[in-house]
Amino acid sequence: MIVILAVIIVTLLYYYTTKNYSYWFKKGVKHDPPVPLFGNNFKNYFGLASITEVSVELYNRYRGEKAVGFYRGPTPELLIRDPDIIRQILTTDFNSFHRRGIGRDPVKEPIFSNLFHVDGDRWKLLRQRLTPAFTTAKLKAMFPLIVECAEKLQKVAAESASKDVDCDVRDLMARFTTDFIGACGFGIDMDALNDDNSLFRVLGRSIFNLSVFRMFLITIKDLFPNFEKILPPFSTRFKKDLTNIFTKVQEERKGQHSGRNDFVDLLLELEKKGKIVGPSIEKTNADGTPAQAELEMDVKIMVAQLFIFFAAGFETSSSATSYTLHQLAYNQNVQEKVYQEIKLLAKYDNKLSYDA
């Protein structure tokens, strides 16, 4: 009886995960043969390659094709290679292609109600409200905060060099980026450069150090999309921490612009503008015109934007800067060129500035 039941379960599982595998063949779109259950995403699911590496490999394998089929688990996806088609998708036909496949349930996990993760009307309205916040003038106003963190980095690096010991540059730059994101994003001096156990440093680890269980949940979500509603949320801990940090800063500033010109200041400015309203890209009225879409700029939405500000800025910046330092260490001639460029700061009173 147990054997029969096991055979039935395996058969149903095989059918469910392979029933779409003729999709691209029927459409006449070239693609790699899918692996049962995993599709063409086996390497990514098992941590052997990032989704970017998988996509680039597929892109290069089918030179001459305008589009290539791909299966993320049981779900068929299309990799576009032709610039003209890409342009048409992003402009003329955007209303039909606004979903990017990385959306999360904003009701179940409100911290993912950010510009990177949401789709549809939420994405459009957030983009409409947030884009003007990143003007050159406002980014320039944040620069002194970065300079302040850079000066601390200089001191820590000098101390390390004076001790003539090995320096873990990856960790050093992770702590540096944690500090300047804390300053530029939250208006908080986290001092991660001197305290490796500061709150933001711990938060960064919790976001990017994926446990086996979290990787398993992400894979299950891809393989069985219908199970997402019953899977536990990924974001419980850092959602709570970020919400506490934001509400504390908000209370300290009494909901007003503090003059620090950090990201919290920008969000508080946007909150004062009230509800975000605009034409929908998902719904239409009876006469075919776009319906009106609305989104309240509440605490949950603002915390979600802070989350992506932290997550996107932390890992990317620390990886890029640590790798740059690694390359400079191995390429003395390039290092010398950089040094000569730094010496040009003399005309700016030997200080880092936005203009420099």
From TrEMBL:
Q: How is this protein positioned relative to the membrane?
A: Peripheral membrane protein
Q: What is this protein called?
A: unspecific monooxygenase
Q: What is the lineage of its organism?
A: Eukaryota, Metazoa, Ecdysozoa, Arthropoda, Hexapoda
**PANTHER family to which the protein is assigned, alphabetical:** CYP9F3-RELATED, CYTOCHROME P450
Supply the enzyme class, top level. oxidoreductase
**Family assignment?**
Belongs to the cytochrome P450 family.
Name a GO CC annotation attached to this entry. Answer: endoplasmic reticulum membrane
Q: Which cofactor does it need?
A: heme
Where is the protein situated, by its record's location annotation?
Answer: Endoplasmic reticulum membrane; Microsome membrane
EC number(s) in its UniProt entry? 1.14.14.1
**Catalysed reactions, as listed in the record:** an organic molecule + reduced [NADPH--hemoprotein reductase] + O2 = an alcohol + oxidized [NADPH--hemoprotein reductase] + H2O + H(+)
